[in-house]
Every structure is written in structure tokens, then in C-alpha cells.
């Protein structure tokens, strides 16, 4: 009817034929500009409307007033094959009686505030707001997966001493969360991850994990073309832990020593470096163990090829055997995956902060309903 209103409405092939205001709400009656549809069964064009049902759809508010669209949903009967087809309309979520843009808006408000707050603003029940939020999140999560080449898989235990785990999946290129999965077993994890389409899973090139989680089997099943990369920070963490044990055993408890020893040498100030060499003079064993730690870090830092990395790491293992025996054994057992780091320098390092925050939030969840909600919030917040 009115060109201005249609432009305001911005829905393809729909025109506004009537505007009403009832109790502070705006009702826009729409009509389709298309005469007919292509029959999805036989591709015949048909204009034979079998019946029309008027559906009320919530849309974005105008000037602070709630807006409802009266949308005609037409069911066509094909003159060629005789089958019935209900017309699809762009921008509508008929299932929940909202426009897509309205749901997108509600989602954004929930991310910024709370379900309760949005429920008040929109005068919808909290359950409805929650349902919208979860549905939009789910759609967005599907999109997170495509295309992803480098994945980080991490395990978070939700409570100390409890065998409840959440697997956190992240996109290491975009540095964002892809998914949080409540899983207790490898089988469950495989089942959930397998829900992603095969062609998406086949495009994953690398999956970065630590050495403890039982992820190897999962990766082989779910990401058939991915190579496993053992996280360099996990390796360094083990070495640092051992170095600190050696320090304690030697009774080297000078103030600030732990910090000086475990920090990256290049991060220390000139004074700190001098202080460290002065303290290490009386502890030759600790001095050697320290140099070996730094050498490993240098290998990680400076090596640019897998052949170079493999060669240097082998040499390191020989030298470090005396003080880092057990760790050397672990490295040998995971040698190939550890060396895969040197291909693309893939690491979960950048995800550490994010994963720690997730851990804190996930530890506060009890029960699955609550988990689903928190999962959505985590994913929404970490893009
Ligand atoms: Zn047909």
C-alpha cells in the first residue's frame, strides 16, 4: 500500500496493506507480492492457493512500541502433480512466531544483559527468551565450524575430585571458542563431534592437545585428515615443574628464585639476569637444569622446520636425560606429535586465558539444563 512503509519493513516480496494500533501495539497486515510458487516436487509453477492462514509474527519494535506482523501463510496446490506446498517466506521463523531479525535482536540483548532483563524489556516469558537465545546460539555455533583448519581440544574438569569433564573446542586461527561439550567418555565425545558434517570434519588439518587427555582416539575417528600436535606449552609446563622440584630438593629457597628460574630468560630485566647468575653460581646442578630448560624453549622459539625441530629435540633429549629423565620418556612416547608443532607452530597457548575463564564459569554449573544455558553464554561471549 504505502511505499514508505514497505521500505521501512524491508521484507522481500511483502507489502503492508493495513496498519492498526491496538493497546499500544502496532499491527501490520502484510500481503505477498508474489502470485505463485515453484512446486518443489515437480518444479511446475503454480498460482493455485488451496488455503491461507494468517499468522501473527513478532517483529522489532518501532518507536518503543511492540510490532506484530499479520502474515498470510499460503498453501498452494500444484496443478501438475496435485501435491500441497506451504510457501516459505524469507526472514520469518514461523516455528516460534518471530522474524529472524527479532530473534537476532533478543540474542544480542541477552548477551549484553540477562534473560530476566530482556524478558522485562520485551514482555515475553523468560522461557521464551531462553528458547530464542538457545536457538540463535545453535545456528551461530554451526557457522563456527566452517571452515576451521586448526582446532584446539582441551579438557576441563568441572570440580576438583569429581569425574565430570567438559571438552572445550576452539578455533586456533580465529582464537575463539567453537563448542563446549559435556562429556564423560571418549564415545560420547565422538558421538557429539560426529554430528558435524563429514566434509567439515575432513577439512580439519591439525588438532592441538596436551598429552594427558584421551583425545587421540577421538581425533582419529572424528577428524580423519588431521594430524595431532602436542601443545608446546604443555611440554614446557612439565619441564618447569621438574625444574622447580630440583630447586626445592637442593634447598634453594632464596626469595624470588622461583620466579627468576621459571620465567623466560628473555623476559627478565638486566638486573634480574645478573641476580639469577649470582644465585646459580653456588648451585651448578640447578644451573645445568636451568640451561636445559632454556635450551628447550629456544628450540621451540627459533626452529622453523620439522626436520630441524626433530634433530634439535633428539639432541636435547640426550643431554637432558640426567635431570629430566621421566619427562624425556614422555617426550619420546609422544615424539612425532610434539615435532608436528614445527610444521605450523600450532599451539593452544593463546587459548589459555579463555579456557581458564571458561573453567571458572563451568565450575559453577550444576545439572544439564544449567549447562546448556552456560554453554550458550560462553560461546556468545567468546567470539
Ligand atoms: Zn507439482
Structural overview:
- The chain has 383 residues and is an alpha+beta fold.
- The protein has three domains: 88 residues, no CATH class; 104 residues, Nucleotidyltransferase, domain 5, CATH 3.30.420; 109 residues, no CATH class.
- The strands form four sheets. Strands 1, 2, 5, 6 and 7 form a five-stranded mixed sheet that branches.
- It starts with a helix and ends with a helix.
- The mean pLDDT is 89.
- The structure holds zinc ion.
- Zinc ion (ZN) binds next to loops.
State the oligomer: single chain
CA distance, first residue to last residue = 42 Å
**What is the overall shape?**
elongated
Query: Which range best describes the helical content: under 10%, 10-25%, 25-40%, 40-55%, 55-70% or over 70%?
Result: 40-55%
What characterizes the major β-sheet?
5 strands, mixed
Q: Return the domain count.
A: 3
* Helix vs. strand class: alpha+beta
Strand content: 15-25%
Show unreliable segments. Answer: none
Counting DSSP E segments of at least 2 residues, the number of strands comes to 14
Bound molecules: zinc ion
